[in-house]
Amino acid sequence: MNPAEALRAALSKFLGRPTADREATEELIRGIQRALLLADVKVELVKELSDRIRKRVEEEEPPPGISRKDVVVRAVYEELVRLLGAKRSELERPPTKPYVVMVVGIQGSGKTTTVAKVANLLRTRGIKVGVVGADTYRPAALEQLRQLLVPRGIPVYGEENGSDAVGIAVRGISHLTSQGCEYILIDTAGRHRDQESLMREMREMAERIRPHEIGLVIDGTIGQAAGPQAEAFHRAVPIGWIAVTKLDTSAKGGGALSAVAATGASIRFIGTGERIEDIELFDPESYVARLLGMPDLRSVLERVRLAELKVTEQQAERIARGTFTLEDMIEQLRQVRKAGPLSRFLRSLPIPGLPSLPEEELEKAEELAKKFEAIYNSMTPEERRDPTIIDGSRARRIARGAGVREGDVKRLVKQYLEARKLVKTMRRSRLPGVRRSLLEGKG
Ligand SMILES: Nc1nc2c(ncn2[C@@H]2O[C@H](COP(=O)(O)OP(=O)(O)O)[C@@H](O)[C@H]2O)c(=O)[nH]1
Ligand SMILES: [Mg+2]
Question: Pocket around ligand 1: residues whose beta carbon is below 6 Å from it?
Fold first, then answer.
């Protein structure tokens, strides 16, 4: 059984049990431990994860309408995500042009392959990218890059029979810049007599070309040894991101990922095959969801999160009295955002038509919620109590403080006044059910 299968088996056995009592939970934890050790996850990390799950299951009271099983599943899921670093990586447009990224790693880790994959990924996002082949120890690497990238319209700079890697990198950067590349990836050598000379050459190149970022490629098949390797490289040069490769070929990928995450480094990419498309931006949440192989995992999580989305009693009281403050509104937004990215929350709602909401719209809603929070933070207590006093000059001051446009401030005020009106109507209708359902979090 591979680790993923072991994990799934443990989980499905747990779900098949009549109740989620202590015995069932302990059995589940043992199953998870076995699976993680099989994946070469460090023993200390396994122990820490088990303790955290246990503690949470003991302390977290299931919200009304939610079974203990759901709570356990969520604790398992969230702790696994945490083990992998929790942070989702993004591929952003470079802040400056050209943005130079030097890619390092030991021989055979998958550097050249990863450089090609990342270049292709950037291209598909509409970013003009170029690649420098500066591995003078292995001339075939240059040919490998050209074959993969030139047909895709990605320029590759290299020098046949060159031996001066730093010189190639410098000339490559200026050549590709003149070709209009906004993102430049530099493939480097990894073949050295020993680690010390590799580190020295790498440092020298980094000092000469001063890349904006250094990416490190690590072979995922080495399991937990990936942790010390990441640390060794980081001691030599500042590592901006890490790619863990070959997760398709070994059961030890989980060990590599968790060991790297434990060093505090950020894993940006994972390699999942030999083809140029076989690369993913690393997202611990979707990685774990796939690992657990539970198609309904997401709905379990959302069910628990939604049930927790409760209006406090005090808030409900105020709403019932018709005094809905701006703070109440911001608090509601915070609660919703705490339940996960707003976009996911909205998509989880059982409202027909909503699932087809374009991603873009959902992202806008998320952006707006963030802006509202910033605006609220820039307001004086007086303005928070009575936002109607916000005139043009106050709006300008607040906007400056929050780093948003004046129109955003006005929008918040307008939205608040509308919400307040709605609350007043609710109060006038005096539906006894309103308050109760709000209290129960079903409003
Ligand atoms: N299965 C699989 N093979 C990979 C992956 N990444 C790289 N490889 C293979 O690993 C070997 C070494 O890759 P290469 O990019 O030349 O490594 P480099 O020496 O660090 O430049 C090649 O055979 C690649 O096809 C991956 O994610 N999955
Ligand atoms: Mg190479």
Answer: 105, 107-113, 141, 190, 245-246, 248-249, 271-274, 278
What the block records as the tokens of 242 is: 């890490």
CATH number attached to the domain at 309-439: 1.10.260.30
Q: Write out pLDDT tens, residues 232-282.
A: 999 989 999 999 999 999 889 999 999 999 998 889 999 999 999 999 999
Which tens digits make up the pLDDT trace of 286-312? 888 888 876 556 666 766 666 655 555
> If one looks up domain 99-282 in CATH, what number appears?
3.40.50.300
Per DSSP, helices labelled H in 293-391 are: 297-308, 313-321, 326-338, 342-348, 359-377, 381-385
- Read off the pTM: 0.71
For domain 3-86, give the fold: Four Helix Bundle (Hemerythrin (Met), subunit A) (1.20.120)
Q: Whose CA is nearest to atom 19 of ligand 1?
A: 108
Report the separation in Å between the CA atom of 261 and the middle of ligand 2, taken as the mean of its atom positions. Answer: 24
Rounded CA separation 199/12 (Å): 46
